[in-house]
Amino acid sequence: MTEPRMRMRQKGQQFATPDLEAYLIAFGDDRNPLPETVRVLDEIVTDYIIETCHAAALCASYSRRAKIKVDDFKFTLRKDPKKLGRVTELLQKDKEIKKSRRAFEVDDDAATKEVVGAVKEKDKDDGDGKTDDGRKSKKVKTVK
What we know:
This protein is mostly helical. Helices cover about 60% and strands about 0% of the residues. It has helices at about 15-25, 35-60, 70-75, 80-120. The longest helix is centred in the last third of the chain and has 42 residues, at about 80-120. The radius of gyration is 28 Å and the shape is extended. It starts with 16 loop residues before the first helix and ends in a 22-residue tail after the last helix. Pfam families: TFIID-18kDa.
């Protein structure tokens, strides 16, 4: 397959050695894998990622788009149900996390408004420049 835009490949490893060693150990290799094995795995993984990205770019170009979308990767991985399932699972988890963050931010904003409202009520002055407990009143900015 031809690459849409050939770029210079970075020399050396792309991924951290401990991560690659953990993968090798998880799949049954020795506790201390050979450095050559780690280097080859790094090269294999890097090539796979590059080829998958180029296939997704090709899919986007067939659709007459300049930018790659998530659906292009899904289409590229459609023949491998395990990988497609994992991608779908991770995308679903990402949506849940974003939804939870938005809900937390909304709750946080509402709680801040309640606290400011309570402070205003407590420090309400009756026009004489002093609050109910005798302190000088301060002008409180309202949060909108």
